[in-house]
Amino acid sequence: MPTKRIQVLGDDGFPVDNAHITSNGKGVITDFDGFATLTATQQNQRFTFSHVAFKNRTLAFNNIGNTVTMQTDVNTLPPVVITAKKKPPTPPRKKPTAPPKKDNTGKVVLYGTLAGIALAVMTSSSEPEEKPTRKEEVRTLKM
Questions:
Q1: Residues 61 and 14 in one domain
Q2: Which domain covers residue 54, as residue numbers?
Q3: Contacts by 98-107 with C-beta closer than 8 Å and gap 24+?
Q4: Residue 16 shares a structural domain with residue 66
Q5: Which of 5, 19, 46, 77 could form a cystine bridge with 51, CB 3.0-4.6 A?
Q6: Which pLDDT band, with edges at 50, 70 and 90, does 129 fall under?
Q7: What number of CA atoms fall less than 13 Å from residue 5's CA on the CB side?
């Protein structure tokens, strides 16, 4: 069986790596420098050279020299336009302003949020104006 070591080049003279060379359902791929070894099992066996950036080319084994030149295939794609809707600005967060509230026992309860934790401060005084002088209880509430 005759064999040939060939180099596949582009029309710019540079090697074409990863070019597919197939014949009778079998094939080889060129290396980084565009080289591949072809083996013919039949006389005048036809080989098809293909690559995504080049036009396919089919040659008989007897007509393949040391190099095979492939023509560039210009694949143009339609232009892509990307647009985005402008998102409205996020309004500033409002500070919670709630008057002091009383629980069911008449104690003044102050509610607030600190770093995602809800707090309730309860004083033993029933008047919101008084400064708490007695024991204060701080507990976390489930959000």
A1: yes
A2: 3-70
A3: 99/128, 100/128, 102/126
A4: yes
A5: 19
A6: very low
A7: 3
